Every structure is written in structure tokens, then in C-alpha cells.
Amino acid sequence: MRRRWTTLLLVVTLVATAALAGCGGKSEKTTLKVGEVTRSLFYAPQYVALEKGFFADEGLNIELTTTAGGDKTMTALLSGVIDVALVGSETSIYVYQQGAEDPVINFAQLTQTDGTFLVARQPEPTFDWQSLKGKTFLGQRKGGMPQMAGEFTLKKFGIDPQKDLELIQNVDFANISAAYASGTGDFVQLFEPTASIFEKEGRGKVVASFGAESGHLPYTVYMAKQSFTNKNKAALQSFTNAIHRAQLWVAENSAETIADVVLPYFENVDRGILISSIDRYKQQGSFAADPIIDQEEWNNLLDVMTSAGELKARTEHDAIVNTAFAEAAIEAVK
């Protein structure tokens, strides 16, 4: 009898231990190190996913860092400092065309237009793109998506960036706004909320949108190395699910509501600036409606890069784009 009770106690103990282990497993979260190319309201859905707990709901712990510039972001990704990069798709094309053995794969789109605005020193109620001719234009880094989309837009209006204006491209991404504020350039290309801050401070006036003029393209995308993608499919699927939940939430809510959620990421920015910046992006459809990087957008990206003279050969969509995660997220998140 005593032996029977000992056996029963052992079985009960094993069952309880297994149950506790199972509960512990469910509470454990997978950590993903994410690097964003800059801190901008352009990425509002990402901050919504963090603040609303969408990543946590998917069993993820996100360690977010700002890596300040496409080249630095890609270096961090390739070296393993981060697992996932939020950066322009052009960076993955550069890596692929260098013959990388472990290419970078685009798996979820966050923004679908250029996010920069043309800022002039003085208001121009009847702005004409031709007014840039003969002026000094403080642009973005050569080969980066903001600069290429900017040049694409200028050419659309018959302006040769290399001949018709003085183009400055040697200012580091993080220092462009400071350079303009100190007096460099007649026009500058800025993201939000910096553009709106400059307006409020009387340093300049938004006169046009590069996003509205350059069309839809995979402007800012989540990407990871092929090797990481193959080994972490469940985590990347959970990540994409959370991003799509945030995209739907942003689409359904007002700029005011969104601003209140993302405020912790822009503590030094006036709430009114946050609202106007988010509204600008919503009005021009900058936030992607879903995470899919489609063929048409990809082709537009290749056209923009070709126009800028930065493309050795057209990189096929299927070569470094994986839409499986996005397609599954759309099915999973209703």
C-alpha cells in the first residue's frame, strides 16, 4: 500500500511539474532587437504596436534602437547587432547586388510613400517647382531613398538636380535639420515632426510633399537576413501580425488619438505638432494599409533608383521580397 501511494505521489508531482512548465513556457517572450533608421512620426504604427501591447500579445519583447541613417542601420543588421531593420528597401538591393551570400529579405512594409516635405525659408502661397532653379537645395544622403525620391520628383517637373540647382548632399542625415537652421540652403528636404517644428519656430514653411509626388513604393520596410528569417519564422510571423494590427488601428483612429498613444516616443514635441504631422501622413496615404510589398510598388522603387543612377541591374521582386508573412498576417488579423 505504501509503495502504491509513493507511486501515485510521484505521478501527481510529475503532472504538476509539467503543467507549471507549460505555463512558464507561455509566459516567456521572444526578444527581437529592432533598429529604426530614424525616429519619426512617419513610423507611427510601429510605436502604436509597442504602446498598445500588440507585440506583447504576440509573445514578443521588442528592443528598439534608433540607428540614424540607412548605411548605419544596414551595418548593424549585417553584423548581428540588430535582428530586424526598419529602413528603405534600397539598402537590401545594394547588399544583394554586392553578391551577399546571406542576402537581406524584405518581409513587411510600414510606409508606402516618401516621408519628406520640401521646406522653404519663406511662405510661397503660389509655389511652383520651377522656383528651385538656381537655388541651393539641402538634400539627403546620395543613394538613400529620400534623396532618390527627391531627385525623381524634381525630374518629374523638368528640373535637373545636378545642373539646375546647387545640390548639397554631404551633410550627415542626423545633422541636416541643424544645418538648415544655421542658414545652409534655400530649400531643404525634411521628415516630420521636424518640418512642422520648423514651421512653428518660423524657420521655414512646408511648400510641397515629395511623398505625394513620387508615388507608392516600399519606402520603409522591415527586413532581416535570410539566415535569420529561415531560423525565426514563428517570431517574424508574430512580429508581422502585430504590425498589421497597428496598421488597422492607425487607419481607424484620428490623428489626435494616435498622437496621444505615440507621445512617449516624442516627449519633447508639442502635442499639436504631433497631431498635424500625423494628419499630413494620413492625408497623403503614407502609412501602408497592410504589410505586403507588392510588385507594382517594387517596380516603382526600381524606376526611382534607375533614375538616380544607383541601380546596376533591376533586382527581381522575388529575389529579396518574402510576402508570406504579410499574407498570413492579413488572414490572421481581422
Which terms would index this structure?
334 residues, D-Maltodextrin-Binding Protein, domain 2, 5-stranded mixed beta sheet, 16 helices, 10 strands, 48% helix, disordered N terminus, signal, NitT/TauT family transport system substrate-binding protein
Describe, in plain words, how this protein is organized in 3D.
By secondary structure, this protein is an alpha/beta fold. The protein folds into 2 domains: 29-113 and 217-332, 3-Layer(aba) Sandwich (D-Maltodextrin-Binding Protein, domain 2); 116-214, Periplasmic binding protein-like II (D-Maltodextrin-Binding Protein, domain 2, 3-Layer(aba) Sandwich). The protein has 16 helices and 10 strands. Strand 6, helix 6 (145-156) and strand 7 form a beta-alpha-beta unit. Helix 2 (44-51) crosses helix 11 (233-252), helix 11 packs across helix 16 and helix 12 (255-262) packs across helix 13 (271-283). The model is unreliable at 1-26 (pLDDT under 50). Residues 1-21 form the signal peptide. Keywords: Signal.
Helix content range of the residues, please?
40-55%
CATH topology of the largest domain: D-Maltodextrin-Binding Protein, domain 2
Describe the strand arrangement of the main beta sheet, using strand numbers.
2-1-3-10-4
Question: Could you say how many structural domains there are in total?
Answer: 2
Number of strands: 10
Tally the helices: what do you get? 16
CATH superfamily annotation of the largest domain: Periplasmic binding protein-like II
